[in-house]
Write a structure and sequence with these properties.
Layout: H1 2-30, H2 62-65, H3 69-81, H4 83-105, E1 109-119, H5 126-132, E2 135-137, E3 140-141, E4 146-159, H6 164-230, H7 236-271, H8 298-304, H9 306-327, E5 332-343, E6 356-365, H10 372-439, H11 445-479
Antiparallel strand pairs: 1-4, 2-3, 4-5, 5-6
Helix pairs in contact: 3-6, 4-6, 6-7, 6-9, 6-11, 7-11, 9-10, 10-11
Length: 485
């Protein structure tokens, strides 16, 4: 009777222990902290400046959008040789390998195991005494010390009940796709930077030509003033004024030449090569046409811009990371098994089933005490998700404003260029008039000097305005998401 009661108590203790462990696992799973998620805020407008045109230049490839053959060669060379761009390409490979690693984590791990060893058990112990009296065969006792040889296969697998490992793999996929979009965005920036530097180089060439032309005009005027001084028509002051103007523009000439060298080296760096002369168009910058640009609608910009798609993918990855961190609060189920052959003598390994060994075990583990590290990781994952959301909204807002600013800039630069062009034409006429009047002593030499100076400054400003028009065209192409496809 007493034995039956003891057995019943023992059985009840087992049941109570199992129930207690199950309750503890359930309690730990239900005590996951709840965090408030941040939702998307304001939506993007439907149009740019009430324009409903669905055509966009972003759909054009860069070798179709730009038509200067020298510029196309530079861009193509940069996409192959630019060091930073190539580093980004390798980062894509790293992200791809991370996907493979995450995928392998939720698949079973199987390996081969082979071992050999020797063990000496003390004779005056239960195990030692047992081995001393054990006979392998009649008249043959266990060897001392006992060798041990084993060969077999081992396997382990974490059953992904809560999809923690699968979500981690999906997050890695999103990060990989985001790295691809990052590469595309970098290509867009690289194409735009080379094009802008190229047009700036053409502008410096044109400014240098204007300054040299102006120096020649001023030297001719200086000769006339010197002749008039010899004829006592003007004083030495007039000669010195004209000579100072010539020296000033010669100094400006060397400054522009230095700017040209630096721009060439900037382009060479982007192309990934050592300094050399940049082949460029000989057509005057002012003669380059300015084509109209179709901007499309904001939804097309969202689909075309790589940085927006990158931010969106990183947001999705951050959401999955929250799920991964949350799953760490739940119990994890691990299964391990092994099968093989083991014997103290290699000749016995082939004797089965005596040398056969196998095992199968399952582990259910759940964090119970001191879960601060898991809570902190979960909280950090949620904060990073909110950061990714704000980053996405910031990227969209910045992209939209970039397009709007460039639209306004195109209109204002067109108006400014027309007025500046009229100013240059008027001042060029004034140079001829003032020179003729000065030769006939009906105008002061200061009027000639100021007219030449104003004409030079206005022509340089006209070239700079034209350069800004070309660069704004490049920036609009980039803002709309062109240059990477």
């Amino acid at each position: 009777m007493i034995i039956l009661k003891l057995k019943e108590m023992f059985k009840n203790n087992i049941y109570n222990t199992v129930l207690l462990c199950s309750f503890a696992l359930f309690a730990t799973a239900c005590s996951t902290p709840v965090l408030v998620q941040q939702n998307k805020g304001q939506t993007i407008p439907d149009t740019f400046h009430n324009s409903s045109d669905s055509n966009t230049v972003a759909s054009l490839k860069w070798n179709s959008y730009f038509n200067d053959p020298n510029l196309l060669v530079l861009i193509d060379s940069a996409l192959h040789n630019n060091q930073e761009f190539n580093i980004t390409m390798l980062e894509i490979q790293i992200a791809k390998n991370e996907v493979r690693a995450k995928k392998g984590e939720y698949l079973p791990s199987i390996g081969l195991k082979a071992s050999a060893g020797v063990e000496k058990t003390a004779r005056y112990t239960p195990f030692g005494a047992n081995e001393a009296t054990t006979e392998i065969e009649p008249g043959r006792e266990m060897p001392e010390p006992v060798p041990d040889f084993m060969i077999g296969a081992v396997a382990s697998w974490e059953v992904d009940i809560w999809h923690r490992l699968r979500n981690a793999k999906k997050s890695a996929v999103m990060e990989y796709l985001a790295s691809v979009e990052g590469k595309n965005f970098m290509q867009t920036n690289l194409v735009a930077e080379i094009a802008s530097s190229y047009y700036e180089l053409l502008a410096q060439d044109n400014q240098l030509a204007i300054v040299k032309q102006n120096i020649a005009i001023q030297k001719n005027a200086l000769n006339i003033v010197e002749q008039q001084k010899n004829a006592a028509i003007v004083t030495e002051l007039a000669v010195q004024k004209f000579q100072a103007e010539v020296l000033k523009n010669r100094s400006r000439q060397f400054y522009i030449e230095q700017q040209i060298i630096e721009l060439e080296n900037k382009i060479n760096f982007l192309v990934g090569r050592f300094p050399q002369t940049i082949k460029r168009s000989s057509i005057p910058l002012l003669d380059l046409p300015i084509d109209s640009i179709s901007v499309g609608i904001p939804s097309q910009m969202l689909a075309n811009r790589p940085d927006i798609k990158q931010a969106e993918l990183e947001l999705e990855a951050a959401k999955l990371d929250v799920k991964v961190a949350r799953a760490r609060f739940y119990p994890s189920l691990g299964i391990s098994s092994s099968i093989g052959l083991q014997a103290f003598d290699p000749s016995y390994l082939a004797k089965t089933p005596e040398s056969l060994l196998y095992s199968l075990a399952g582990d259910l583990i759940s964090p119970l005490v001191n879960r601060n590290a898991i809570k902190a990781a979960y909280s950090s994952a949620n904060v990073k998700q909110i950061q990714a959301l704000y980053e996405y909204e910031k990227t969209v807002l910045s992209a939209y404003l970039e397009v709007v600013n460039n639209l306004s800039k195109i209109k204002n630069l067109n108006k400014s260029f027309d007025l500046k062009n009229q100013e240059v034409q008027t001042l060029n006429k004034s140079i001829r008039v003032s020179t003729d009047l000065f030769k006939s002593a009906r105008a002061d030499y200061m009027e000639v000097l100021m007219t030449q100076r104003d004409a030079l400054e206005s022509t340089v400003e006209l070239i700079e305005t034209k350069m800004q028009q070309m660069n704004t065209r490049v920036m609009m192409y980039k803002a709309l998401g062109g240059g990477w496809n």
